[in-house]
TrEMBL record:
<dbReference type="InterPro" id="IPR032675">
    <property type="entry name" value="LRR_dom_sf"/>
</dbReference>
<protein>
    <recommendedName>
        <fullName>Leucine-rich repeat-containing protein 59</fullName>
    </recommendedName>
</protein>
<keyword id="KW-0539">Nucleus</keyword>
<dbReference type="GO" id="GO:0005635">
    <property type="term" value="C:nuclear envelope"/>
</dbReference>
<keyword id="KW-0735">Signal-anchor</keyword>
<dbReference type="Pfam" id="PF13855">
    <property type="entry name" value="LRR_8"/>
</dbReference>
<dbReference type="InterPro" id="IPR050216">
    <property type="entry name" value="LRR_domain-containing"/>
</dbReference>
<feature type="compositionally biased region" description="Basic and acidic residues">
    <location>
        <begin position="196"/>
        <end position="229"/>
    </location>
</feature>
<dbReference type="InterPro" id="IPR001611">
    <property type="entry name" value="Leu-rich_rpt"/>
</dbReference>
<keyword id="KW-0812">Transmembrane</keyword>
<feature type="transmembrane region" description="Helical">
    <location>
        <begin position="274"/>
        <end position="295"/>
    </location>
</feature>
<keyword id="KW-0256">Endoplasmic reticulum</keyword>
<keyword id="KW-0472">Membrane</keyword>
<keyword id="KW-0433">Leucine-rich repeat</keyword>
<keyword id="KW-0677">Repeat</keyword>
<dbReference type="GO" id="GO:0005789">
    <property type="term" value="C:endoplasmic reticulum membrane"/>
</dbReference>
<feature type="region of interest" description="Disordered">
    <location>
        <begin position="196"/>
        <end position="266"/>
    </location>
</feature>
């Protein structure tokens, strides 16, 4: 079996399945049910004068071999979006309906060559209409088209005019498509520019915010630095005050200690001064007595009545010393002092011209 024979076999099998499968039925207005299979003749399906209010897209999709569809003279007001998926359609007649608009994706019907929209309520066509590159025949008579589209469509009184209508409308829609594309491009560029400006403003705002945060941080740092310096200066001042107070306290303590020491030392000093004075007076008295004794013992005044009591007292004292039992060293010391005193007195009296009388030295008492 050749490839073409195999293909024909599978096509026959497919149609047999369609023949045996349940036929799609369409519920019409007034509760009437329409069997679509009964409306098929070869590759044509005639649904005209069926009082349809909507297009049975789902049911039509079950017959991909149907390329010619006649739905004229019904009450259809619009085509559903799913109708644009019936790309196998080549000829469509939607004349004498109530349609006011066509779906935006009508351009997806790429195989469509013949389109009859006579006597509807259309004012404009979708921009995608320009994508119907295979469209060769078009009738837009008796539609309230906008003026430019009506001028492009012209009359469609015969085959030639309908073909010209298709060519002119496609050209007109391509121009509109170009304008729409340009407008879309312009809008896109505008939106892109606006987005760019928005991003620029956003970046500027973020930069300003970063700068403000940076400035705030710098100000906060400067404030903390000033507070730290002020705190350290206050501590230094407080420390200086404490130091001065401590020094003042020390000075006051020293002054108090000095005053106390002075107060304590004054009586002692006075006592020492008094004792010294008394000692000096006693010494002077002793020196005076010694001088008197020396004069009375060593000069010619010895025989005078004034010196008699003194000489008696001295002799009695010396006798008393001789009678006492004292240490030899003390007696030697007394004798040595006596000798030295006589020599000193002699030296003092010689410049005055007074000749001292010879006296016997003090006798030492032997044990």
């Amino acid at each position: 079996m050749t490839f073409q024979g195999s293909l024909q076999f599978f096509e026959t099998l497919r149609w047999n399945k369609l023949e045996t499968a349940p036929h799609p039925k369409l519920r019409m207005s007034k509760n009437k049910v329409l069997n679509l299979k009964d409306k098929i003749d070869g590759n044509e399906m005639d649904l005209s004068l069926c009082n349809l209010t909507e297009v049975p897209v789902k049911e039509l999709a079950a017959f991909p071999k149907v390329t010619v569809l006649d739905m004229s003279c019904n009450n259809i007001t619009s085509l559903p979006l799913e109708f644009c998926s019936l790309s196998h359609l080549v000829k469509v007649d939607l004349s004498k309906n109530q349609m006011t608009v066509l779906p935006d994706d009508l351009g997806r019907l790429g195989n469509l060559q013949h389109l009859d929209l006579y006597n509807n309520k259309l004012t404009i066509l979708p921009v995608s209409f320009s994508q119907l590159k295979n469209l060769k025949w078009l009738d837009l008579k008796d539609n309230p088209l906008e003026i430019n589209l009506a001028k492009a469509a012209g009359d469609c009184l015969d085959e030639k005019q309908c073909k010209q209508c298709a060519a002119r409308v496609l050209q007109h829609m391509r121009i509109l498509q170009d304008e729409v594309d340009k407008e879309r491009e312009r809008r896109f560029l505008k939106d892109k520019e606006l987005e760019k400006k928005k991003e620029t403003k956003q970046r500027e705002r973020e930069a300003k915010e970063r700068e403000a945060r940076k400035r705030d941080k710098a100000e906060e740092k400067e404030r903390k630095r000033k507070e730290y310096n002020a705190h350290m200066a206050a501590l230094a001042v407080q420390e200086q005050k404490n130091k001065r107070k401590e020094e003042k306290k020390k000075r006051n303590g020293q002054i108090a200690a000095d005053k106390k020491a002075a107060a304590e030392s004054t009586p002692k000093a006075r006592r020492r001064s008094l004792i010294g004075l008394l000692f000096k007076l006693l010494l002077l008295l002793l020196l005076g007595l010694a001088g008197v004794v020396g004069v009375c013992q060593l000069t010619g005044l010895k025989e005078e009545a004034v010196c008699a009591p003194i000489n008696v007292a001295v002799d009695d004292g010396l006798s008393w010393v001789r009678e006492q039992e004292v240490d030899v060293r003390v007696r030697d010391l007394v004798q040595e002092v006596d000798i030295r005193a006589r020599e000193l007195l002699q030296k003092l009296l010689e410049p005055l011209g007074v000749v001292p009388m010879a006296t016997e030295p003090v006798e030492t008492v032997e044990n």
